[in-house]
Design brief:
- With 187 residues, the protein is of the alpha+beta class.
- The chain has one domain.
- Helix content is 43%, strand content 22%.
- It has 6 helices and 8 strands.
- The protein has helices at residues 7-14, 30-47, 74-83, 114-134, 139-156, 169-173; strands spanning 2-4, 19-24, 51-57, 60-63, 93-99, 103-108, 160-164, 184-186.
- An 8-stranded mixed beta sheet has the order 1-4-3-2-5-6-7-8, with helices on both faces.
- α2 runs parallel beside α4 (114-134).
- It is globular and about 40 Å long.
- The N and C termini lie far apart (36 Å).
């Protein structure tokens, strides 16, 4: 079992040539949490080390390990939702850091059916596996290209929100205007 307890642990994980995201949920719907936990074993078998989906739990973040709903970190999830500025109706969401401490984006799963959530996670997982097999050997280039492709896919699914403290580099890379209303929040 791998647990991320500190920023240093997270930075070490980011050195891997793999996609890293955080699953954030408000916790009001146990069904949402259980859906992700039910998928976890198949997800881990599918992606191996191509994608690390961090699940907030009581002791930090669990990575590549099974947890049950009782270990889910409700307080940490609330803190993360505020920190990442994920809108309540967008939860649950998958948060991806595009430019450390400056820009991130999230894939909003909150308005999607259970089947659609599963399909979207499976699609992103397949993208990660394919990029790991055929993409850049450099971890930063690997994640950058994958982030662009995920953002394009999420936009097509009407599930993309970009949060940026400056002008959005990601929006420019995926061909969007920097002030596209409702998609980009500048802070």
């Amino acid at each position: 079992m791998r647990v991320i307890r500190s920023k240093a642990d997270l930075e070490e994980l980011k050195e891997d040539r793999s996609l890293v995201s955080v699953y954030v949920d408000h916790g009001y719907s146990v069904e949402n949490i259980e859906l992700v936990l039910r998928m976890k074993r198949a997800f881990d078998a599918h992606v191996a080390d191509a994608w690390h989906m961090l699940i907030p739990c009581s002791e930090g973040y669990r990575v590549d390990s099974w947890i049950d709903a009782d270990a889910f970190g409700y307080q940490l999830n609330r803190q993360l939702a505020r920190e990442y500025q994920v809108r309540e109706n967008h939860l649950p969401a998958l948060v991806f850091e595009f430019d450390p401490d400056k820009e991130y984006f999230y894939v909003a799963l909150g308005q999607k059916t259970e089947d659609k959530r599963t399909e979207m996670i499976r699609h992103i997982a397949t993208m990660a596996v394919e990029e790991q097999e055929k993409g850049s050997k450099d971890a930063i280039e690997f994640r950058g290209r994958l982030h662009q492709n995920i953002a394009i896919y999420a936009r097509q699914q009407k599930a993309l929100t970009i949060i940026s403290k400056t002008s959005s580099r990601l929006a420019d890379l995926i061909g969007l205007g920097a002030n596209l209303k409702g998609l980009i929040d500048n802070h």
